[in-house]
Design goal:
37% helix, Rossmann fold, 2 domains, alpha/beta, three-stranded mixed beta sheet, Ubiquitin-like (UB roll), 12 strands
């Protein structure tokens, strides 16, 4: 899965990218005119994976991971060619979700493109640009459909859908406001509309605000603004319950450079108990409503990503289409039972080794092995 990091110029996007991925991308490059994106990957922090690796001591370890793409910073009017214009679009259209960095820190050495700090305004600016970019794509598509005058019968559904989307955007509402039937969903997915992509919003605060930001008036105002935006925020508790995560980007980078033994006391000095990094990575994963199951053994312990509520046979297809085609049974072990009993022999003796059919719906963290014949 791929997450695009977006935000205004000088919002701290690349700093957040470095924090999440452990990379050392140049943080001043985009404001000087660079348009090439930064690519990196972050492992989803999960102690269950590491515990399974301890039990099986595999030759290969493959945890769940998120790919991040840090694209050029936007300015107001980007959809009309302002700043670096729409050069970022091709990179984030292929992303599954967006991580939206909003600036709330003040630093005279890092000028804000609008000369003042206003996170609510900046949040709105970016989402308006995303909607305008979608509106431009929709108007182009409608023009092509109408190129020969009358709408052809086979294009009528698409034409009507594009008109509905256009009216939604012209009323200054994102496409997440609309509902689509199955046929429309297939058509919409083909356009990769930006205002339909789920978002995780990260507020980049100053070091002096990090401890108390969750109880601040600014947090409450942002919460209200985000709730009105109709965006697809995660609702699984990965964030503060309202789609808002926050971090002090420079502080997090300093923490990453410290030995593990010194991090706890460093955090305590700032009145915080943990870094925001792991929380944001988990939220980026969860916002797409996905989960993962494990396969285990001496050769490899691996986390496999699938859509939530997938059936056993759909999980099998994540590994290989042949396994799904020749599916017989899924051997299922609950993670809690695995770590409690530790061996297959004990699991079978206690009746914790389950056999399930195609329609079984595995849960997050289940350990699966598939019986199949092709």
């Amino acid at each position: 899965m791929k997450v695009g990091i977006i935000g205004l110029t000088n919002s701290g996007k690349t700093t957040v990218f470095n924090v999440l991925t452990g990379k050392s991308a140049e943080t001043s490059g985009y404001s000087s005119g660079s348009v090439e994106p930064n690519f990196g990957q972050a492992v989803v922090p999960d102690p269950r994976f590491y515990r399974l690796c301890e039990l099986f001591e595999p030759k290969k370890r493959t945890p769940a991971a998120v790919d991040f793409v840090d694209v050029v910073g936007l300015v107001k009017g980007a959809s009309r060619g302002e700043g670096l214009g729409n050069q970022f679009l091709s990179h984030i259209r292929n992303c599954d979700a967006l991580l939206h960095v909003v600036r709330a820190f003040d630093d005279e050495n890092v000028p804000h493109p609008d000369d003042s700090i206003d996170p609510v305004r900046d949040f709105s600016t970016i989402n308006v640009e995303l909607m305008l970019a979608d509106l431009g794509a929709i108007e182009n598509r409608i023009e092509k459909i109408l190129k020969k005058g009358k709408v052809k019968k086979e294009s009528q559904v698409e034409h009507d859908l594009m008109i509905r989307c256009k009216e939604c955007l012209e009323s200054e509402k994102p496409l997440t406001e609309l509902t689509f039937n199955d046929e429309e969903n297939i058509l919409v997915r083909g356009f990769s509309f930006l205002s339909l992509k789920p978002q995780v919003v990260v507020v980049n605060v100053g070091e002096d605000s990090i401890a108390d930001f969750g109880n601040s008036p600014l947090h409450d105002e942002l919460q209200k603004q985000f709730a009105q935006s109709c965006l697809n925020f995660p609702e699984n508790g990965a964030l503060s319950g309202d789609g808002i995560a926050w971090l002090a980007g420079k502080l997090e980078m300093e923490i990453m450079e410290l030995p593990q033994t010194e991090r706890e006391s460093f955090l305590a000095d700032y009145g915080i108990s943990d870094t925001a990094r792991d929380k944001i990575i988990r939220a980026s994963y969860a916002v797409l409503d996905q989960f993962y199951f494990f396969t285990v053994g001496p050769d490899e312990v691996r986390a496999w990503t699938v859509k939530r509520n997938s059936t056993a046979v759909e999980c099998a297809s994540a590994i290989h289409s042949d396994i799904a085609r020749g599916f017989i049974r899924a051997e299922v072990i609950k993670y809690e039972d695995m770590v409690a009993l530790e061996t297959m022999k004990k699991l079978k003796e206690k009746g914790k080794f389950l056999l399930e059919g195609k329609e079984y719906r595995p849960q997050d963290g289940d350990i699966l092995h598939f019986r199949f014949n092709v």
